[in-house]
Write a structure and sequence with these properties.
single chain, 174 residues, alpha+beta, 5-stranded antiparallel β-sheet, two-stranded antiparallel sheet, 4 helices, 35% helix, 22% strand
Length: 174
C-alpha cells in the first residue's frame, strides 16, 4: 500500500512526503495521481504567476524521481530538502530573471538551469545542505564553476552569472 502525506512547510504551500518508497506500478500511479490532484487543486485560473509553473515542475520532478534507480543508472531519490532549497532560491529571484528549467540529478540533488539563445547555459544544483554547486558555459566560450555556501553575497554573484548566460554579455563579477 502507498500513502502520501501532504503538509504545508517552508512556505512551499505543499510538500510531498512519501511514507514509503514503493516501486510498483500501483505505488507510482498513486503518487502521480496525488501530484496531479494537488497540481489541479493549487492552480490559479487568472494571471497565473510563472513561479507557480516552477512549483509544479519541482513537484512533478520530485514525484517522478522518488525512488532508487529512477534513471536506470543507480540514481538515488531526489531529496525533498533539495527541492525546498531550489524553490526557496528561485522564488526570491528578481522578476526580470526568467523561470529556470528543473533537472533532477542522479545524486539526489535538484538543478535549476537557464539557457541563453546563443548556447550559453548556467546551472545551480541544490542538495540537502546550504551549499550549492554551479556551472556555466557562456557564448564567449568562458566557463565558471564552483561550490559555495548560499549566502546573500553569493546570491548576487549567481544572479549576475544567470543574467550573463541569458544575455550573452560579460558580467562585471570577477
Amino acid at each position: 500500500m502507498s500513502t502520501l502525506a501532504i503538509s504545508g512547510k517552508y512556505d512551499f504551500s505543499f510538500d510531498f512526503n512519501p511514507r514509503t518508497k514503493g516501486i510498483s506500478n500501483p505505488a507510482r500511479d498513486t503518487a502521480n495521481a496525488a501530484a496531479s490532484a494537488l497540481a489541479h487543486f493549487t492552480k490559479t485560473i487568472v494571471n497565473k504567476d510563472p513561479r507557480e509553473k516552477l512549483k509544479e515542475d519541482l513537484i512533478a520532478v520530485l514525484m517522478e524521481c522518488n525512488q532508487n534507480n529512477w534513471n536506470g543508472y543507480d540514481s538515488i531519490p531526489i531529496n525533498p530538502n533539495a527541492l525546498l532549497r531550489a524553490w526557496d532560491y528561485a522564488r526570491n529571484l528578481p522578476k526580470e530573471i526568467p523561470i529556470p528549467e528543473v533537472t533532477p540529478e542522479p545524486d539526489g540533488e535538484m538543478a535549476l538551469e537557464w539557457y541563453g539563445k546563443d548556447g550559453s547555459v548556467f546551472s545551480i544544483s541544490f542538495g540537502e545542505s546550504d551549499t550549492i554547486s554551479y556551472a556555466g558555459l557562456f557564448s564567449d566560450k568562458t566557463k565558471t564553476y564552483g561550490v559555495e555556501r548560499l549566502d546573500s553575497e553569493n546570491k548576487k554573484i549567481l544572479e549576475e552569472f544567470i543574467t550573463r548566460a541569458l544575455s550573452g554579455k560579460r558580467s562585471t563579477t570577477k
